[in-house]
Amino acid sequence: MKPFDAARRSLGEGPSAARRTRQRAHLLQRTVLAGGRASHRGWRLAPVALAAVAATAVLWALWRTPAPAAGMQLTGATTPELRFAEGSTLALADDTAARLDVVDDARVEVTLERGTLSAHVQKGTGRTWRYHAGPWVVRVVGTRLRITYSPEAASVDVGVTEGAVEVTGPGGLTRVLAGETLRRTAGPPALRAAPAAAEVPPEGTLAPHASEASAGEDAGAPEAVDASVAPGRDAAGGRPAAAEVPSQGTPAPHAAEASAGEHAGAPEVVDAGAAPGRDAAGGGPAPGAPPRHRVAAPAPRPPSWRALLSAGSRTEALTAAQRDGLFEHPEALSTADALWLADAARLEQQPALARALLAGVHEVAGEGAAEAAYLLGRLEADAKQLAHAREAFARSLAADARGAFAEQARGRLLEVLLELEDLPAARRAARDYLQHHPTGAWARLARGVPGGPPP
Amino acid sequence: MSAAPAHLQVVRPEEAARTQALLDGVARGDGDAISAFFTRYEAMVNRLVWRMLGADAAHDDVVNVAFEAMVRRVRDVRSPGALDAWVRAVTVNAARMELRRRRWRRLFTRQLEDDEVLAHPDLSVPDEAERERLRWLYRALDGLSADDRNMLVLRHLEGLELTEVAEALGCSLATLKRRLARAEARLAARLGAPR
Known about the structure:
The complex is a heterodimer. Chain A contains 14 helices and 13 strands. Chain B is an all-alpha fold. Chains A and B meet through helix 1 and helix 2 of A and helix 1, helix 2, helix 3, helix 4 and helix 5 of B.
């Protein structure tokens, strides 16, 4: 098209070489020197600042101290402690190996390959932290915790001294509160209300390797005591998946059906008449012995939706949850369960189901409520239900105005208000956003709201 | 053997290894790697933002935002062969966010024009008639929907192949073809000139 040909010639290729040099210096300053935590800060250079940025660019070449960055391999011997820009810390014991997988504004993800790490996660940073220990994932938002993972024993210990964490993986979802320690092997979970600073149970338990346990064998796992429900826990606290103890006479589920979260006990068929009347060879009934009664084994129980979801079978998990009638009364679900199922529904391209589950969350305060409302807002906004999205983001902020989702809820609320062309509300939202997050991802948008906060 | 579609970017093995090493370095936060990454893509990113925004006063901010996003999300790159397309998509997204901000600002202030377009100090168009033609083109583009506008700029100003445009905007080729034809007709009507 002719107008474009002329425009291409007139416009040229972009700014000057000097300006691109400044762009490079800015990028290095924001990424390498700032600890790998680039944000959406706007940037205008004055000559003095230009000199500072140029000097900084030279400094990085001379002095390169590793800062937390994605892909970093960590050992207790070489990196005993890592400090993040906002003050969160990660400390590794001597025999520990870990890896920083993701470091950005929204999240930090650490893989604990073996050993013990202790972490202090600052609240209100807007970051979600996840620690991967084998098949388990520990999700934290503002807390102090210690995690020990042994790949040989297929076990993980999670001790919390402050705040709360959620652990998912073999054994289902468990919420661990301050003062509690969770020990998981590939068998059923055991939660004891012991101080987090208590000695780590010795490694080398009898728990089988995770892959064997998931095949449904009970090869030495601890007895299935349902100690996973701590007294005084309410549903909102995220009741963990109870270990399922097969009663006498219940055969083990088929290996393919049992996930790592199920306790697959060996089948036992009670033969009430056998013992007293057996002949010496242990064979058939002795003459005159009472007739044998065989107890018919009940049909194998299908795996629970939690077990299926822990094993990553989302479609099957949703089918199981529907079979159990959970979707008829989503308000009866705990917040943790609603979040878990909604996530699965979203990933299975069922946004309407996800919305219904999140809308049913009855908690109105706390981190779980804030997360549910925020995610609902996102889904509503995607579906162009802007009024509902507005309500959901506002509810998220009401539930937790300083939590992990607060910045995003404020930013998304501002976007929705602008889409709805509600300028007075958008101005208020912009002021609120800048008050809490002056350098956040939506700061530029907030400053640009006409009649809003000054730039 | 026919050439691979442009958007698949055939990469020789040794080149792929070098690119992968570069990506690994960026992911680790290595300054040398980040600097090399910038060198490799600064021309493409600057040109794309320049043309999408129209030598906007906010050009440098948007370029910075795009590169910072790339460094943060470099692990999202599926393979060395997909890198160019990925860089383009991230850049287009950063420019789109700025265009959205501009549109809202203009909407609420009831401005008919945006005084940020063609306002970059490095834009050099001394001929006033030429500058007026540029302004006329961007004004016509801004009168279209955001999607139509971006489609036309990427296809006709930046000169991307249809497959590259579709990938950068995250739509299917069939959708792009259908919408591009419509967008061209709308722009032609606004410009009042034959295509």
